[in-house]
Specification:
It comes from Cytobacillus horneckiae. With about 325 residues, this protein is an alpha/beta fold. The chain folds into 2 domains: about 110 residues, Rossmann fold (3-Layer(aba) Sandwich), CATH 3.40.50; about 180 residues, NAD(P)-binding Rossmann-like Domain (Rossmann fold, 3-Layer(aba) Sandwich), CATH 3.40.50. Helix content is about 35%, strand content about 15%. The strands form 2 sheets. A 7-stranded parallel beta sheet has the order 8-7-6-9-10-11-12, sandwiched between helices. The two termini are about 30 Å apart. The model has no long low-confidence stretch (mean pLDDT about 95).
């Protein structure tokens, strides 16, 4: 009997063509919206493999409904949308897409830092709205980035590449991580400090930590109060590591200078969200890995993981 694969988002035909040669492939074809959860539960019931994105809630109910399910290939480096414990109990392989998105995500994180520091989005809208009437000495003056201190929270592979980008700006590099990263210290001159010291000393705080029970609400009002009033906060990891109300209050009260955000607690974020009303906030729609080259690599890695597991081989990038 031909094994069946369900793909939860519309992907290019050329990417899934290898799967169609040997498997029965069905794909959600509504490009403009995610698959409803109830529909995904229905589709998983006779699927041998799922290809999902971080938008899908791969919980115990869903995994249990997949009586034949052998693999869930999650198209993201993070997998906080997947119930890993239940997957282990059920013997279902979970894979992610590490490494292939590292450089692109680091580029976006550093771009957010620059855009927020130099008020680039605000300045662009200023011109487009016809508000630019003359030049003045402090018109839209932002903050220098070169030779400042960057504090990286989460010195994984993406964090190391952000640190590498920072060396090109002659920045002093601090980092906080669960464990010391000697290679980052030796190769990039990064200095390990505790969380509070990083908050107090950094001009730019870049959050790249994975979402876990320990990191949820890691950035609260207490954390923002420890930052410099001129500090810029950047989050390119996961939304729930930040208490958004506390961030809003810190920005409005002037406790920090600005925030560059690629991720939010609820995605897509409501257009009426208070953070989006602030000029000192640069907001992106979770596009850290969104280049054509990188997204295609992520898709292909998912396909390769599925092919491996369905042909009784070891997954390429299992998460456990």
């Amino acid at each position: 009997m031909t094994q069946r694969i369900f793909i939860s988002r519309k992907l290019p035909d050329e990417v899934i063509a290898p799967l169609k040669e040997n498997y029965d492939v069905k794909m959600w074809d509504k490009e403009d919206r995610p698959i409803p959860y109830e529909e995904l539960v229905k589709e998983v019931k006779d699927a041998d493999a799922l290809l999902t994105t971080l938008s899908e809630n791969v919980n115990k109910e869903l995994l249990t409904a997949g009586n034949k399910l052998k693999i869930v290939a999650n198209m993201a480096v993070g997998y906080d949308n997947v119930d890993i414990s239940s997957a282990k109990d059920l013997g279902i392989t979970i894979t992610n897409t590490p490494d292939v998105l590292t450089e692109s995500t680091a580029d976006l994180a550093f771009a957010l830092l620059l855009a927020t520091a130099r008020r680039m989005i605000e300045a662009s809208e200023y011109v487009k709205n016809g508000d630019w009437k003359s030049w003045s000495p402090l018109l839209l003056a932002g903050h220098d980035v070169h030779r400042k201190t960057i504090g990286i929270v989460g010195m994984g592979s993406i964090g190391k590449v952000v640190a590498k980008r920072a060396t090109g700006f002659d920045m002093n590099i601090l980092y906080y991580n669960r464990s010391r990263k000697q290679d980052a210290e030796d190769e990039l001159g990064a200095k390990y400090v505790d969380f509070d010291e990083l908050l107090a000393q950094s001009d730019f705080i870049v959050c790249l930590t994975p979402l876990t029970e320990e990191t949820k609400d890691m950035f609260t009002r207490e954390a923002f109060k420890k930052m410099k009033q001129t500090a810029v906060f950047v989050n390119a990891s996961r939304g729930p590591v930040v208490n958004e109300k506390d961030l809003y209050d810190a920005l409005v009260s002037g406790e920090i200078a600005g925030a560059g955000l690629d991720v939010f607690v609820n995605e897509p974020i409501d257009a009426d969200h208070p953070l989006l009303k602030l000029k000192q906030v640069v907001a992106m729609p979770h596009i850290g890995s969104a280049t054509g080259e990188t997204r295609n690599k992520m898709m292909k890695l998912c396909v390769e993981n599925i092919e491996a597991v369905l042909s009784n081989k070891k997954a390429i990038t299992p998460v456990f």
